[in-house]
Write a structure and sequence with these properties.
α3 packs antiparallel against α4. This protein has 161 residues and is of the alpha+beta class.
């Protein structure tokens, strides 16, 4: 969950205690990758005759230092996360678990906070291709069910003009 109310934005979440990755949290920066739409692009969609297959994508990398969250702070984090994602639902989950059951679930996770020091966005959307090739790829992606990536490519193409 993104908490951007503070001066330094933070990512808040949890992972399973059985996942050994949390043991690496410490003095070194961590990297969190947010993968956006991505798909194979066939050269058959291009007007250009000399082309090769490629992969187009959108991604964001967030860097920062991780801190473990436990105790009452972890309970609060879980409650905030549930409230955030249940809000607006026609029949939201009430989060009314027996205390011993809830305590067992909380024991099975490790909460974390990552203060975001740096964000890097990267995209490869055929921006080096001629416009006709880009339009062909957009059409091919839509036909193959990858409309979200096609939308990104279309916006990028419009920015070129």
């Amino acid at each position: 969950m993104l908490d951007d109310a503070a001066e330094t934005p933070r990512l808040l979440g949890h992972i399973a205690r059985a996942n050994p990755q949390w043991k690496q949290f410490g003095d070194d920066d961590v990297l969190v990758i947010f993968e956006g739409p991505h798909a194979y692009v066939s050269p058959s969609w291009y007007e250009s005759e000399q082309a090769v297959p490629t992969w187009n994508y959108v991604a964001v990398h967030a860097y920062g230092r991780a801190r473990i969250i436990d105790g009452d702070e972890l309970t609060n984090l879980v409650d905030r996360t549930v409230a955030n994602y249940e809000s607006g639902r026609a029949t939201p989950w009430k989060n009314e678990l027996p205390e011993d059951f809830r305590a067992g679930l909380l024991e099975a996770i490790v909460g974390f906070e990552i203060r975001i020091d740096r964000l890097e966005g990267k995209f490869k959307l055929g921006q080096s291709r001629p416009e006709a090739d880009a339009r062909g790829a957009i059409s091919g992606l839509r036909e193959s069910g990858d409309g979200q990536l096609a939308d990104w490519m279309e916006r990028q193409l419009e920015e070129r003009e």
